[in-house]
Amino acid sequence: MSEEEKMSYSEAIKKADMSVSRFPLIPVRGIPLMSLIAKNWDSIWAFRPEPSDLLIATYPKAGTTWTQEIVDLLFHNGDAEACKRVPTHVRSPFLEIFCPPPIRSGLDQLKEMDPPRIIKTHLPFQLVPPGFWENKCKAIYVARNAKDNLVSYYHFDCMNMTQPDPGPWEGYIPKFMRGELAWGSWYDHVKGYWMEREKRNILYLFYEDLKENPRREVERIMRYLDLSVSDEVVSQIVELTSFKNMKENPMANYSCISAAVFDQSISPFMRKGEVGDWRNHFTPEQSKMFDEDYVKQMKEVNIPFRTLI
């Protein structure tokens, strides 16, 4: 991004600050989505990707940005400078996002890009535009254990001034359990992609595996994308996408987003990136209640989640 483009982008964000608010959630086919997404749903559903496009899908706060950076570096043979050309959300547009003008929607950004494009979504499987599957696009899904995902989403909702106020922690847990947050039920989300992974050739990854052995998972992604980079480049990608390095990378840490949208004085966009941080938030009573409900909601599948590594 040139200096002129950066200034233009910053000015657009400042102008948009005037109309930023915590947008209400409106159900789309039973899934609560931010009102601007719901109002533009027809154009999102009609999106037609190119067969070479790649979809990166996650429930919010499950390792999306991490995966976007890994993929971009793989496509650029580990070239760190190439991957600092613009912020993550410009390199890899957010398919369904609609913001107050003059900020461009994900669809507008995608129209200006040549394939192959890296496309991000938080949509559950049943709301992904059918063109992705009709064109046999590759898709990477990243899932994070429910408790850590809940904690991360709570802190994100506290600092994200565009989603409904999360309220107190003790009230947020049942909202998560009932699927009343933006993009709906975590349980249905992870199950939906899991059950379709073989039929749709979806690479299903786990956040905990990425933390435990990032090199192994980067190599899995590389093979899935039919790419080949040297062992040295893989090592470089692992280093560049460590939590510490990404947290300090202004092109990945969302520091270019105005505090009127993401107030990082409340909580950083990249907060901890740990497995097991849920133990610092759940009381024993809350954990017991959550675990009992989890067994009921996940009884029909056996997805190998880990809450500790």
Brief overview, please?
This protein has 15 helices and six strands.
What does this structure look like?
The protein has helices at 3-17, 35-39, 41-45, 64-75, 88-91, 106-111, 131-134, 146-159, 169-177, 186-196, 207-212, 214-224, 231-240, 243-247, 284-297, and strands at 25-28, 31-34, 54-58, 118-121, 138-143, 202-206. The protein has 309 residues and is α/β, with parallel strands linked by helices. It has a single domain (8-297), classed as 3-Layer(aba) Sandwich (Rossmann fold), CATH 3.40.50. The strands form 2 sheets. The protein has a 4-stranded parallel β-sheet, sandwiched between helices. It has a two-stranded antiparallel ribbon with strand order 1-2. A hairpin with a 2-residue loop joins β1 (25-28) and β2 (31-34). The longest helix is centred in the N-terminal third of the chain and has 15 residues, at 3-17. The radius of gyration is 19 Å and the shape is globular. 35% of the residues are buried. Keywords: Catecholamine metabolism, Cytoplasm, Transferase. It is found in: Cytoplasm.
